[in-house]
Automatic annotation (TrEMBL):
<dbReference type="GO" id="GO:0003824">
    <property type="term" value="F:catalytic activity"/>
</dbReference>
<dbReference type="InterPro" id="IPR011013">
    <property type="entry name" value="Gal_mutarotase_sf_dom"/>
</dbReference>
<dbReference type="InterPro" id="IPR032342">
    <property type="entry name" value="DUF4861"/>
</dbReference>
<dbReference type="GO" id="GO:0030246">
    <property type="term" value="F:carbohydrate binding"/>
</dbReference>
<protein>
    <submittedName>
        <fullName>Uncharacterized protein DUF4861</fullName>
    </submittedName>
</protein>
<dbReference type="GO" id="GO:0005975">
    <property type="term" value="P:carbohydrate metabolic process"/>
</dbReference>
<dbReference type="Pfam" id="PF16153">
    <property type="entry name" value="DUF4861"/>
</dbReference>
Length: 413
């Protein structure tokens, strides 16, 4: 009896300390697919209004078992948190005042001015990179997204850059090259992010192509390649979502100076980035593609296209297939696609302009001036979650279906 009274007393104290208020959030899954650790979102203002919390008040999110969940407040006023909901069912979560536990950062990124203005970001599944103005100033032509594979859940990108760019190590390698090239090579390999040190590596080749899923306008069946971003702003930086806004230098499209803006978001647990693209000063409806570079002339069996579901996939052999680097699986989902196909370069373009790449597999849609193009792109690795191209294709096919059936998140009043 004393134990029951003590537990009741603790419960009453906890309830009174939270102000006696809580908000129930319903997450409904109308699809026929189980959703596991998917990031749900709801307007934060609607939650605080119901709770009567101040902007500085602390709160917690609890699942049905009363366990705390990690959460994040995003730049656009959303409260996001991971949910698991069975097919054709719903789950309730509780928000109330309280002291949140400290959860690990899963998704994060930043600009690396020390590496020609790269912006690199990652979650627990995969990592990505896009190139900046300092690289463009060198004259190197790199238009697309880069993919960094990983085989651990914790962040790895920061340590990879630290190893690759350490000035003392670089100086030592430079000195050794003069006297002991073999030792220099061994030291380089011991710190390079192009070598797998147990958590993955950079073994994807972008070159002067669309790389791992970049969007681009297409005029008269010719891709208008975007170059590196001009300005950036990191809007969200973990623990569950990374968001960056990129603005590009003007491109001439049908005689007009067109400025592209991208809003790229990566959530914890997902292989795919959500990207919102706009083209300012575009005067007429223009085809747009989401493209993946092809690196193997015999690759027809290694890609899949679905115009109906708006996706393309590819099994990339990596930039050094003989180095046991596995296979990088790449995909893009363009929900408004009207066509999807592989397009191969003519021999001259392949060798003179595209760094030896064979072509692209493209999802193609129409972009209407003043609108937003929303699409998804990303990758997986044969050494971390996807054994075969069939596994990857099944993942992308399922994700394409789920994009048309988002979770319904609402406050229970």
């Amino acid at each position: 009896m004393k134990k029951i009274i003590l537990l009741l007393f603790i419960a009453i104290i906890g309830f009174s300390c939270s102000g006696g208020k809580s908000v129930k959030i319903s997450v409904k899954n109308d699809s026929a697919i189980d959703r596991e650790n998917e990031i749900a979102e709801i307007s934060m203002s609607s939650v605080t209004e119901m709770l009567g919390l101040s902007d500085t008040a602390q709160f917690v999110i609890l699942d049905a078992q009363g366990e705390q969940l990690p959460y994040q407040l995003t730049y656009d006023g959303k409260l996001i948190f991971p949910v698991t909901v069975k097919a054709n069912s719903s789950v309730e979560y509780t928000v109330q005042a309280g002291i949140p536990e400290k959860f690990d950062t899963i998704t994060c990124g930043r600009q690396y001015p020390e590496r020609v203005d790269d912006i690199a970001w990652e979650n627990d599944k995969i990592a990505f990179r896009t190139y900046g103005p300092a690289l463009q100033a060198t004259g190197e032509r790199a238009f697309g997204y880069d993919i960094w594979v990983k085989s651990v859940a914790e962040p790895v990108v920061e340590k990879r850059y630290e190893g690759e760019l350490n000035p003392e190590t670089k100086a030592r390698i430079s000195e050794l090259k003069k006297t002991d090239p073999k030792a220099a090579d061994e030291l380089y390999k011991s710190v390079s992010y192009h070598v797998d040190h147990g958590n993955g590596l950079d073994c994807y080749k972008v070159g002067p192509t669309l790389g791992g899923g970049t969007a681009a306008l297409m005029v008269n069946d010719t891709i208008v390649y975007p170059y590196c971003y001009k300005t950036f702003e990191v809007l969200d930086n973990g623990p569950l979502r990374f968001t960056v806004k990129l603005i590009y230098n003007p491109l001439i499209v049908n005689g007009d100076s067109v400025v592209e803006t991208r809003l790229i978001s990566l959530d914890a647990g997902s292989q795919l980035n959500k990207t919102v693209v706009t083209y300012d000063n575009l005067k007429e409806t223009t085809p747009v593609v989401a493209g993946i570079v092809l690196h193997d002339p015999e690759s027809s069996a290694q890609y899949k296209v679905s115009a109906e579901k708006g996706y393309v996939t590819y099994a990339d052999p990596t930039d050094n297939p003989n180095n046991n680097n596995g296979t990088i699986f790449v995909g893009a989902i363009l929900p408004t696609a009207k066509d999807a196909k592989a397009v191969y370069f003519e021999e001259k373009e392949k060798n003179d302009l595209r760094g030896g790449a064979d072509g692209h597999v493209l999802a193609i849609a129409d972009y209407t001036p003043g609108s937003e193009l929303v699409y998804y792109w990303g990758a997986g690795w044969s050494k971390y979650g996807f054994d075969t191209i069939e596994d990857w294709n099944a993942y992308i096919d399922e994700e394409a279906s789920l994009k048309s059936e988002p979770l319904t998140v609402s406050i229970i009043k």
